[in-house]
TrEMBL record:
Possible subunit of a heme lyase. GO terms for molecular function: metal ion binding. It comes from Sutterella seckii. This is Cytochrome c-type biogenesis protein. Belongs to the CcmH/CycL/Ccl2/NrfF family.
Length: 162
C-alpha cells in the first residue's frame, strides 16, 4: 500500500524539477543573448534546415538534441558574422542536401522532386484502367431483355400487375 502511494509522489517530484528560492525552475528555452536582428537571422536559417532526427520538423521547431546542437551551430556562425547562405552551405557540406527543406534539383535529388508527380500519374492511370475494366465487365454481364421481358416491364410500368 505504501509503495502504491510513494511511486506517484516520487514521479511528481522528479517531473517538477529543482526548486530554487521556493519556485520551480523554468523549463523554457533561454532567450538568445544577442540583438533581435541576429535572432531573426537564426530563425530564418533554422527554418530552412530539416531536423535530421525528426525529419518532418525544422531545427527551429524540433527539440531533439541534434536539432539543438544545429541551432547552436547556427547561432555561433551568426555571431561569427557569416551570411545566411554561408551558414546553409556549411550545413549542406556537412550533412548533405537532405538537411534542406527545399533541396536543389539535381540528379541525386530528382526522386524527391519527381517522385510525387510520378506516383500521382501512376495513380491516375491505374484509376482509368480500373474504370475501363469495370465498364467492360458490366457490359459483358448484362444481356438485353427478351421480347417477353420487355412486354412484362412495360405492363409493370403502366400499372398492370399480374
Amino acid at each position: 500500500m505504501m509503495k502504491k502511494l510513494l511511486a506517484p509522489l516520487l514521479c511528481a517530484l522528479l517531473l517538477a524539477g529543482p526548486v530554487i528560492d521556493g519556485t520551480a525552475e523554468a523549463r523554457e528555452a533561454a532567450p538568445t543573448a544577442f540583438d533581435p536582428v541576429a535572432h531573426k537571422r537564426v530563425v530564418e536559417v533554422s527554418e530552412q534546415l530539416r531536423c535530421l532526427v525528426c525529419q518532418n520538423q525544422s531545427i527551429a521547431d524540433s527539440n531533439a538534441e541534434l536539432a539543438v546542437d544545429l541551432r547552436n551551430q547556427v547561432i555561433e556562425q551568426v555571431k561569427a558574422g557569416k551570411t545566411n547562405q554561408e551558414i546553409v552551405d556549411y550545413m549542406v557540406e556537412r550533412y548533405g542536401d537532405f538537411v534542406l527543406y527545399r533541396p536543389p534539383f539535381k540528379l541525386s535529388t530528382a526522386i524527391l522532386w519527381l517522385g510525387p508527380v510520378c506516383l500521382f500519374l501512376v495513380g491516375i492511370i491505374a484509376f482509368y484502367i480500373n474504370l475501363r475494366r469495370r465498364k467492360r465487365l458490366v457490359n459483358e454481364a448484362t444481356k438485353p431483355l427478351s421480347a417477353q421481358e420487355k412486354a412484362l416491364a412495360d405492363e409493370l410500368l403502366r400499372g398492370r400487375k399480374e
